[in-house]
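Exercise 3.2. Students should predict the tertiary structure of the chain below and write it as structure tokens, then compare their answer with the key that follows.

Predict this chain's 3D structure.
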Amino acid sequence: MKQCLLLLFFISGISSAFAQFEKGDLYVGGNFGLSIDTRESSNPGSSSQYSINLNPNLGYFISDRSVIGVIPQVSFFRSATTTSMNTKIISENVKGGIGLFYRRYFPVIDNFYLFLEPKAMFNRTFKGENNPNYLGFSLAPGASYRINGKWMVEMTLGGLVYNYTYTNSGTNQEYDDKRIAFDLITANSIGIVYFINQKDQ
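Answer key:
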């Protein structure tokens, strides 16, 4: 989180002031995640896994400080494990979903804002075992810095999160899992925003 804040302040030092948000502003943004993990053990055996997460978003300003928007999501996961008997086990899944969010900005200094974002998300596993359904609600704080009329960088923290997962195994067995968490340290991300309907200033 400290590195995220330092990046925002660094960008703020190389940009200049300009007009604020306006009702009717439209932007696209989001973040991209890639994770690769390879392990060797002394059994012998080995395992590797990777995941790719795409989280774009589209926001529309309903006032000079408030935004509503949608968040489509897609993620891919693959793992491969080689056992001590030289047997290879491969697991793959593909998840997708959609979310809705509201964001309220609070100006701090020129072009620098804090915000609060309630969000609802629904995801489903389309390829993989059990095909669980996921429903999540979150209330997250964050910070944004507008570099110029077209571009803005932002950092979102984890905040308060409630998750509900429902799984039908296909063998007349059903499972559900409810979790609530509060995390401002590890569950954070940096994204970039592009304003569609504004000219460079």
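Discussion points: Strands lie at 26-41, 45-61, 66-82, 88-109, 112-127, 133-146, 151-156, 159-168, 174-183, 189-195. Residues 59 and 132 are 28 Å apart (CA to CA).
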